[in-house]
Amino acid sequence: MWDNLRRMPPGKTMIPRRRGEFYWRQFAIFKELGIRTVVVGMFDEVDEGTAIYKVSNDTAVRKYFVTYEGLPSDWYLKLTGAAPQMMRGEIPWSATIPEKLAFPRD
Questions:
Q1: pLDDT per residue as tens digits for the range 76-94
Q2: How confident is residue 96, by pLDDT bands cut at 50, 70 and 90?
Q3: Are the C-beta atoms of residues 79 and 20 closer than 8 Å to each other?
Q4: Cα distance between residue 89 and residue 56, in whole Å
Q5: Pick from 102, 100, 98, 72: which is nearest to 85 by CA?
Q6: Rounded Cα gap, residues 5 and 53, in angstroms
Q7: Rounded Cα distance, 101 and 79, in Å
Q8: Closest Cα to residue 19, out of 58, 68, 79, 59?
Q9: 52 near 80, Cβ under 8 Å?
Q10: Counting beta carbons within 10 angstroms of the beta carbon of residue 57, is it exposed (0 to 12), middle (13 to 18) or buried (19 or more)?
């Protein structure tokens, strides 16, 4: 959320996370292109809505926070762990997050 930086009204610059689909699709594209190494560089970018570490869906002030939309607090960490399985061919390629995905260390 960039409201303060852009001097916008609170909540104006919120971008939905789309439940991880955009994030997963990037890995699927990399696999299609034959890319073998990917670096996830936004572990803690909360202000940009790209953080992958554990967060709560319950915020003190709900109105101006993008949450994980009711998904588990470690959803993006799990996707980050599962994506290399797809890229290595250990699980089938999928353009969207598979309904049944074996997360590492479940």
A1: 888 988 998 999 998 899 9
A2: very high
A3: yes
A4: 32
A5: 102
A6: 23
A7: 9
A8: 68
A9: yes
A10: middle
